[in-house]
Amino acid sequence: MSVLVNKDSKIIVQGFTGSEGTFHAGQMIDYGTNVVGGVTPGKGGQTHLDKPVFNTVKEAVDKVGADTTIIFVPPAFAGDAIMEAADAGIKVIITITEGIPVADMIKASDYIKDKDCRLIGPNCPGVITPGEAKVGIMPGFVFKQGKVGIVSKSGTLTYEAADQVVKQGLGITTAIGIGGDPIIGTTTKEAVELLINDPETEAVVMIGEIGGQLEADAANWYKESGSKKPVVGFIAGETAPAGRTMGHAGAIVGGSDDTAQAKKKIMRECGIHVVDSPAEIGKKVAEVLG
Amino acid sequence: MNLHEYQGKELLSSFGVRIQRGLVAQNAEEAVAKAKQLTEDTGTGWHVIKAQVHAGGRGKGGGVKLAKNLDEVKDIAGQIIGMDLVTPQTSAEGKRVHQVLVAEDVYYPGDSEPNEFYMSVLLNRSNGRNMIMYSTEGGMDIEEVAEKTPHLIFTEEIDPATGILPFQARRVAFNLGLSGMAFKEMTKFVTALYTAYDKSDASLFEINPVLKTSDDKIMAVDAKVTLDDNALYRHKDLAELRDLREESPIEVEAGELGLNYVDLDGNVGCMVNGAGLAMATMDLIKQAGGEPANFLDVGGTADAARVEAAFRIILKDPNVKAILINIFGGIVRCDRVAQGVVDAYKNMGDAIQVPIIVRLQGTNADIAKELIDNSGLDVLSATEFQEAADKVQQVLS
Fold it and tell me: B281: which chain A residues are within 8 Å (Cβ-Cβ)?
């Protein structure tokens, strides 16, 4: 078991023939991911990386049964790409694109809210179920199969956490990069919930950062769920000054309740094993799993 | 991107939001000329001289003053322009004032008492919708109002499919206790304000105070406007309003080199790929007994040119006593980064006088470590995160 993506996912790449799309689709295919084609408007009918190119997402759904998409299209067109995927009936929409205007994301998230789909990202590294499907830009070799789920706002910090977990002799069920933007499709709480409900996941690593309420919401949900699965947490940005955006558009301390300290306090109160040092994530996971 | 008050007000006015009118001046003589002009245009007797810097709390620092005649306009504008204005939102050194807004006096006596409100438009991150937040308690620090009298703060969520609806505008006016002409004025004001926010791709409007004048007009007396950087490509006219004088020169330079850099007060510089890992590295520096001197995300490519650019930016800060490079190589190969560090180090000759700790993990980390260790350079290498922290501690002690 795993969540969101597996070996049976039928994956298409939106922005397939662009440079980012080409490079990462190639890496995904090399990993063994079931990429069934791609979409680039105006290039339908061509073949790219030995896979069919379609003009529209709908065509890809109809002809090759696509159910999952990964979006690499440039920021100005990414909101539209998300809505097109949802309209075509894609179930899992993973958006890598960074720098989408907030207004476009407000519109896109409103458009998809009543549709039967799940958006991951934007501005995220994607999702990987080791040994089955890499639907993202992460280095596949870092992620070994195992029983620990990871949820993170950050790309490289996800790789760091996975590496530490693997070096403890453990492995990963699914790692979900939810993204660092102010508006994201799948929240920390929803991603943690998916992993807590996954029978093969025995522990969850939850990595957050300053800004917003997502980690607090996830912590409160975890407490109320009464789950016995251990969650290990880390929040980046204890040393970040208030009012400054730290790289990720959403990583900004707005008040007293979205600092790293405040988030860690709530997480601890909700029974999450919080580490203060980002170097101790793996060790703590090994410890709680005994 | 932040706008000056006068720029923000011009933006609001272009969407039909009533504003306290004013003219911007670069020196005392110009301020007098603009004050005369403003009296002709508006009939105002007194003038308010307001420092134009990107910081709140300007009044508290002496950056906003009332001038009752043209001599006072000249004196006050002369004092404010060129001063280093210290407010609760600036550093202790303050911010240099380059220009003032000469504004009309809107607190004139009349049939009713003037009344101040608070209003902002911003994204509600918890549901991905914009909202209007407003309060009867204008002219005050809104965080304080939120803490002491939260029942005096109201919000109005905006459905993105419809925009602000007439009943919502009426509800705002009712909640602010308005009636008659002021009520109508407020519904127009809040509707125009939201439209301006929406059409300009703003990420924050904060109008504090919104004033009901003694003759029942509703107007914006101040305007804090932040625009969504990601949407500036479709607002070329607004993008041109950027005032580089208001930003840290080193951050501007880093931005031009494609580096995401935030200047901090500490003693250990850092260079990291990825924003989350960069923040985590700053935290680790602190736990190792140092203080981070910066946030720096070099992004997905870390070749010699980029590493060298990053070195030069970090070393502009004289407080830097050590530099920690932390790269998790995924798609980026660690050996390329290592070669970049070695080349940059050699190119820069004696420019680097502080110890460097390089932690490379991920793709080709072993080759990278060997490359660094055999380079003969004064660089400490590490592969584990904790090891890097220990080495920072070691060089600081």
Answer: 278
